[in-house]
Design goal:
- This protein is mainly beta and 95 residues long.
- The protein has helices at 24-30, 68-72, and strands at residues 3-8, 11-17, 48-56, 75-77, 83-90.
- The chain has a single domain (3-90), classed as Beta-grasp domain (Ubiquitin-like (UB roll), Roll), CATH 3.10.20.
- The longest helix is centred in the first third of the chain and has 7 residues, at 24-30.
- It is globular.
- The termini are far apart.
- The structure holds FE2/S2 (inorganic) cluster.
């Protein structure tokens, strides 16, 4: 089972074990970390975080909250991104 860690810069804000099938926002809640949300459906980008390492699902096709370029920079959407395995997340967006 993976370990999901939430950081801001070098500071570890919280961590939780992987909850299969649950979104990053739900993992953050379990870790006592707040990721802001608005639409909760991949459209607004409010919940955008940066993937530092590991694997978080990307919607296919991309939802309006993401584009190819920002995904390349590590952007993932907390409300719909599902982590698997060991994952490190910076809770701020990449740009
Ligand atoms: S809360 Fe709107 S894209 Fe995630």
């Amino acid at each position: 089972m993976g370990l999901i860690r939430f950081l801001r810069g070098a500071k570890l804000l919280g961590q939780t074990t992987e909850i299969p099938g649950k979104s990053l926002v739900e993992h953050a809640y379990a870790a006592n970390v707040d990721i802001p949300t608005n639409c909760t459906s991949g459209n607004c980008g409010s919940c955008m975080v940066t993937l530092l390492s590991g694997d978080v699902s990307i919607p296919e096709p991309l939802t309006p909250g993401l584009d190819e370029e920002i995904v390349e920079e590590g952007a993932r959407l907390g409300c719909i991104g599902i982590p698997s395995g060991d994952v490190d997340i910076d809770i701020l967006p990449p740009l």
